[in-house]
Amino acid sequence: MFTIAIGIFFVAMYFAAGIKLVRPTTRGLIERFGKYKGLAQPGFNWIIPGVDRLILVNITEVMVNAEPQEIITSDKLNASVDAQVYFKVKSDEESIKNSQYSVNDYQYQMVNLARTTLRNIIGTLTLKSANSERGKINSELQRTMRDETNHWGIEIVRTELKEIDPPKDVQETMNKVVKAENEKVAAIDFATATETMADGARRAEIKKAEGIKQAKILEAEGEAQAIQLVNAAADKYFVGNAQLLRRLITVEKSLATNTKIVVPMNSELVNIIGEMAGLVPLGDHRPTLPKPYSAMSPKNADSEHPFRSNGG
């Protein structure tokens, strides 16, 4: 019984030694006596201890860093270039086999391939174009590495160009150039804004002057029309006795305030004033109006009438 128990124990230990658990993030290659036997899927797997070998392969996305390197650009300047490559092993059986049987240490070779590809790409560019065309460099790097690693069972997810650092003295010169260009652009923008403001102010003054001019024109036209209407009404309504009455009212107001009136000789207004004063201009034989100061004595009337002289 003891021997049986020992045998069962060794069988159990042998069976336990062959138990392999594969995580979902990996796949397993089973080799038997050095030959490919099959693919181990995630979960419980059992292999023959001492006969089979399980090789685990990570299928998650991995990042490798292409260490900084000095690259000479086409304009003969040294630039320190650093990049990162993101890739993963495809999960199908053929790709997993290729990642182990078609390439030796694919991560190490991935780094060196990225460094070589960067030298080939950036070496054809100037330092300025290399800094301004990072997207183009990334796309070219990813395309080249995808073509070169296609038979490795590798998928290049993306590539990132981290840094393109020129020499320190070149960097200082470039910074000065960029600063001068920015100041130039700012000065041009300021001048444009000032010119725009001045042009706006000039246009506003022109519009204001045009408005004043138009208002004065309209005011003058209104006054002219009003004068025309007054003249038309006077010609229509102030005729005969009405016209004479209007003249008498005007002269009476002037005399009441002792207003001096200067009128040209031989005008009709002289005749009217003379008529009010009881005088008849020379050469005029029209009958005189009744004397407004008839209640006064002839002597007093002659002396106090403002338009009667001693000579008559």
> Residue share in helices?
40-55%
Counted beta strands: 8
Q: Which range does the strand content fall in?
A: 15-25%
User: What is the CATH level 1 assignment of the largest domain?
Assistant: Alpha Beta
Query: H/E series, N to C?
Result: HEEEEEEEHHHHEHHHH
> What gross morphology would you assign?
elongated
Radius of gyration: 59 Å
Class per helix and strand makeup: alpha+beta
Mean residue pLDDT: 77
Q: Treating each run of at least 4 consecutive H or I residues as one helix, how many helices?
A: 9
The description of the largest β-sheet is:
3 strands, antiparallel
Please identify, by name, the CATH architecture of the largest domain.
2-Layer Sandwich
By CATH's scheme, which homologous superfamily of the largest domain applies? Band 7 domain
Structure notes:
By secondary structure, this protein is an alpha+beta fold. It has 4 domains: 2-58, no CATH class; 62-166, Band 7 domain (Tetrahydropterin Synthase, Chain A, 2-Layer Sandwich), CATH 3.30.479; 179-237; 241-304, no CATH class. Helices cover 53% and strands 20% of the residues. The protein has helices spanning 2-17, 93-101, 106-122, 127-132, 134-148, 168-237, 241-256, 268-277, 298-304, and strands at residues 19-22, 26-32, 35-40, 43-46, 52-58, 62-72, 78-89, 154-165. The strands form 3 sheets. A 3-stranded antiparallel sheet has the order 3-2-5, covered by helices on one side. Helix 3 crosses helix 5 (134-148) and helix 7 crosses helix 8 (268-277). The radius of gyration is 59 Å and the shape is elongated. The N and C termini lie far apart (183 Å).
